[in-house]
Amino acid sequence: MDRDTAQHAHHVLASVLRSDRARILARVVRIVGDLAYAEDAVQEACVDAAHHWPRDGVPVNPQGWLVTAARRRTIDRLRSLTAASRRERAMFERTLGFDVEPDDAPVPDDRLRLIFTCCHPALAPEIQVALTLHAVGGLTTAEIASAFMVSEPTMGQRLSRGKRKIRETRIAYRVPHDGELPARLAPVLAAVYLIFTTGYLAPTGSSPVRVDLLDEAVRLSDVLCELLPDHAEVLGLAALVHLTDARRDSRLDDTGLAVDLTHQDRSRWNSDQITRGLTLLARARVANDPGPYQIQAAIAAVHARASDAAQTDWAMIATLYDGLLALTPSPVIAMNRALAIGLSRGPHEGLALLDDPALVRALSRHHRYHATRAHLWELAGDLPAARRAWAQSLELPMSAHERVTLLAHLEEISPVNAT
Amino acid sequence: MRYMLIIHNGENHPRPGDEGWDQLMADYGAFSAQLASYGTPFSGDPLAPPDMATTVRVHDGQTMVTDGPFAETKEWFSGYYIIDVENLDQALAAAAMIPSAKWGSVEVRPVLDM
Known about the structure:
By secondary structure, chain A is mostly helical. Chain A has 21 helices and no strands. Chain A is about 70% helix and about 0% strand. Chains A and B meet through loops of A and helix 2 and strand 6 of B.
């Protein structure tokens, strides 16, 4: 065997799997009708490719070759089934015969089917997220387990329970029709956004940013835009993800501590990603169907447009939070709105809103609530009140990074340093 | 695939003689007619309330019959349908049309072919 040919074959296989694994898997799922079997078949097809390509040369259409090989592997498996596996046999007979498109046909719908299946509302949200990362994102069980801070066996059970429920309750591989789309799209967008926020905030991990999850969420939101290009909230989510992710490189200082938005070095924000986010947001507005992702993206866009923190149009942000609060009322949004009002109309106005009894009841056990009050008291020039609020915040659970950052800040505003 | 739609009545579910009862019965008639118009094979029946239940257990060869159970829960199993449809989405759509779902819940489970 020619060493260069062999190397070239391995290189092509690796690159095809990197860029097209989800497409190939989605295609095979459609042919064999079952996610778990399709994954096995794709795996076996890759082993076949690693064996044949170095010897026979790389096929003209490597993706099509892998799909065909996976289909053949499934047929072999069907033949080897014993009578004891009647149910499996029935399943394959039902699905295998069905419309196999030519291998070079465009197949965006297969990926979309797969995403909607993984995020079917009959599956628990944590299973939706895990399945999406696994089947569409190609992450391994170990990678997903570590991203969500659970053990690998736990994540393995979660994934296999999801696949089993898809098979045994017969969740269809289909894209919902227009009438169902709003309800069915919501968990899909929520799953992608949760993947993003988990990567961005990495709640309890040793590293405060999970780059693999951020990359995956960006990729998934782009895939959704490609597949549903006219849907306002799909564009809104992608805009939000890009505009927020643009700040990735400035989120941590040299020692690995989180830097808040005010103190980030904006010259390190990714201007290409900001442009992409703003373009997506403009496209979303054309659809004239506002929603929570678009409004959050619009808030991120206000930050992105400000050349430094002092230039931030907090009045605009407060107005956007009014809209967000009307669409999706929540104490956290009410708190962020109060902060924006405090920063645009004066700290005392924000503090008064934060004293709302319902808000106190809902948020007094969250450190960010007290941190927000502390921030506004500092602006109001009342350092003793600020220190009291910071102290309340420190009594509550927060990540190790947040705690270190906060302690450093308290040091700065301590009476000793202030003199 | 066959699915059982297991109906649980909630607290405010109309009872015979209540103001909403006749309307409920008419709605159930319309639901059955709709399934029939789709050509969906189905069967199903309502059940007497849980205070009419008797429980049988056979332990160590002894048959024991007890009154009840008197469930503590606020929702109780009140009837079922078995429908034969293509996939879960169709079963869920049918479940959402069951009139009692407005006051309780409908559990959807595949029927196993043994």
